[in-house]
Amino acid sequence: MQALIVSLVLLVMVVAVLALAPLLRTRVHAWMQMARSAALRRARLLRSATVISSSGEEIEVPDVVRADTLWIERIRAWLYRVRLQTVFVSVLVVALIMLGLPGLLPSARADELTVLVAPFSEPGGVFADTGRAAAQELTDVLVATAGSGVTIRRIDAAPVDREAALALLRANHADAIIIGEIAPGGMLDA
């Protein structure tokens, strides 16, 4: 449960960062516009000089703004790299959360019990109709009397040994398995 809460908090944080990114970008863009307009104002003041040649032709003065735009271009390139890095890291974090989340969550709820009912064998290890009918009847009784959070499932074949029973429990995400022996023609005493 704690892993689920931590994963959800991380997901909310990533979503919040992604949601706030446009707001931050507009704020930085506004700062950049103010800095640019201040630089242009200074450039207009510096450009007010006109040079006239001896023949009466106007000679253009080299643009002073070009010297100021170098740092603006550097800042713009830096912001572009930061934005790409932020998007890349955010996508990576979301992908890791999505890949790791199923492993962190339990496969079944803690308050849920899953019970498997295997067909009963007759003496000698033979599985006949009597054992299958008793297993089906026991499954029906348990389903009718079990409370909420209890899952009863009938399986087709009983495990042959302890290791097979454990493997069957793991494969079905079950907590218990009911196996047994019944006399030929016997009935379930419920």
List strands and helices in order, with pairings.
Blueprint: H1 2-46, E1 51-52, E2 58-59, H2 65-104, E3 113-117, H3 129-145, E4 150-154, H4 162-172, E5 176-178
Helix pairs in contact: 1-2
Q: Helix proportion of residues, in percent?
A: 55-70%
Which structural class do you get from the secondary structure elements?
mainly alpha
Overall residue-averaged pLDDT value: 76
Rg (CA only): 38 Å
Can you count the beta strands? Answer: 5
Helix-strand topology string: HEEHEHEHE
Task: Give me the number of helical elements.
Answer: 4
What does this molecule look like?
With about 190 residues, the protein is mainly alpha-helical. The chain has 4 helices and 5 strands, in the order H-E-E-H-E-H-E-H-E. It has helices at about 1-45, 65-105, 130-145, 160-170; strands at about 50, 60, 115, 150-155, 175-180. A hairpin with a 5-residue loop joins strand 1 (about 50) and strand 2 (about 60). The radius of gyration is 38 Å and the shape is rod-shaped. The model has no long low-confidence stretch (mean pLDDT about 75).
Structural key phrases:
single chain, 59% helix, mainly alpha, three-stranded parallel beta sheet, rod-shaped
In short:
Helix content is 59%, strand content 9%. The chain is mostly helical. The longest helix is centred in the first third of the chain and has 45 residues, at 2-46.
